[in-house]
Amino acid sequence: MLLVIVLSAVICSLRAEYSYSIPYEKTISDYEGISSPDAGDEIDQMDVQQISAPNQIRLSFTDDPTEMAITWTTNGVTNPNEVRYGLADSNLNNTASSISHQYQWDEDEDGNYAYTSGFIHEALMVNLVPGAIHFYQIYSNGKTSDVIRFIAAPEKGSETPVNIFHIGDAGTFGTSVMVTADMMNRMNKQDFHGLVHCGDMSYADKYNGSRGDFATQKVWDTWGQMVEPVASKMAYMTSPGNHEIDVYESTRENGTIYQKRFIMPGNEKSYSFALGMVQFVSVNSDESVDKESTQGVWLEDTLREINENRDKYPWLVVFQHRPIYNSNANHGNWSGQNTYDIADGWPEADYDGWYTAFENLLIKYDVDLLLAGHVHQYERSWPVWGRNNVQKSYNDVTAPVHISCGHAGKDLYKWEWDTNNTVDSYSDPAPRFSAARTNTEWGHCELEFLNKNTVRHTMYVMGNTEPKEDVTITKKRSSAALGIQASTLVLTAVLWLMWC
């Protein structure tokens, strides 16, 4: 008996500890099934319960440039669970303690759960120096992370150039990994302050086709680990998509898992934050925005307050999941009403205000850019308002530019649905508002706010080191421009009354 016990102990000691890594070095030829527009299969999923070290590390801004929120996951909570940080990697003399929580998902009739999360830790680093390089290291569950570098948000209103990534609709496919690897390579060439993800992060739901009826929560863990090399080094800001928030399409997650896993300002769906001379506003596109709605009232109050300080914040960017300008036949322009055939009888949601009231606010409060995803393509508009008013120039723009960057990994919308891959999703010619578009290439987008009057937008196709799209947008606030926008506002209001 003693011999058996000894042999068992030896075998256990020799058993390899579970390890998991994301295959960033792989290319298209290394994956099965990737052939545009098809993303192929998901990568192997991570078992978070077997990983004791800090994983899925992700930063996020508050609206205070002296703060940075952070979250990570472990399979236990052995003390300490804290972040040590400072201005030098050799002097991490500040400490932020974390709070921890855990959740379960998919209960069967016997009261057993298909999934139990790891312990999700949240902490807040304070007293940062705005715009300065900082370093941190996580001490949690008896393990430590690497020492990691990040840049704090620039001082509000400062004219510091601001660089961000923006993407949408990623998932955990080989294409998702390769787009992430492209951003990692870009980070080796220049600094970025943050990333804006315009919804549909992990696709942890039944619409992936390769899983069952209920959300496979391991996909959230896999996605969190996939984006960690980006998200641990800069603020990863999110706006929820239909696959996180919509009752039907999120497999009834209904936003609950999104709010357990992400730390965003405000209510984590509708919020704003400033980066130097740029104000960013997140809007939940699966919620009403009319003047009678909670979000609509909040949005107008927020835009009004920002607009009263445009000398301090010359750039105003709204980001959300669903686009209101889109030339792809799949989804169309978001008007607040889903058009899906829901076989199981769940009601289609109608959200008020998206048809006209929302664009009315964009024009009224001089929004410069609207970033979106949802449609699995890249598309950039000319400055446009009222559907048919188009300025075919990016010099001295007088209306918002709409950029959909929904091609970060999921299957692309090359073909119209229900046509057996015979009808292209793009009509020819493109609508007047559409300046550039592609429905056959994955990639990511970047914005570089150079000064108060100039922003550079680039789009990198997956696997390329040079941008396919490279556009400079300039603006000059003038009484003439404001007059155009005021008259447009009146016209939009008239059209809205006629439509109602």
What does this protein look like?
The structure is a single chain. The protein has 500 residues and is an alpha+beta fold. It is 19% helix and 26% strand. The chain has nine helices and 26 strands. The protein has helices at residues 2-14, 174-187, 218-226, 228-231, 242-245, 256-261, 294-307, 357-364, 479-499; strands at 55-60, 68-74, 81-86, 94-97, 99-101, 104-107, 113-116, 119-125, 133-140, 143-144, 148-151, 162-167, 194-197, 235-238, 271-275, 278-282, 315-319, 369-372, 378-381, 384-385, 389-390, 401-405, 434-438, 443-451, 454-461, 469-474. The longest helix has 21 residues, at 479-499. Residues 1-15, 341-347 and 478-500 have low confidence and may be disordered.
N-end to C-end Cα span: 84 Å
**Biggest sheet, spatial arrangement of strands:** 15-16-17-18-22-19-23
Oligomer: single chain
Using DSSP, what is the number of strands? 26
Question: What is the global morphology?
Answer: globular
Question: Which residue ranges are poorly predicted, with pLDDT under 50 across at least 5 consecutive positions?
Answer: 1-15, 341-347, 478-500
Give the class from helix and strand content and strand pairing: alpha+beta
C-alpha-based Rg, rounded: 23 Å
Largest sheet: 7 strands, mixed
Question: What percent of residues are in strands?
Answer: 25-35%
Number of helices: 9
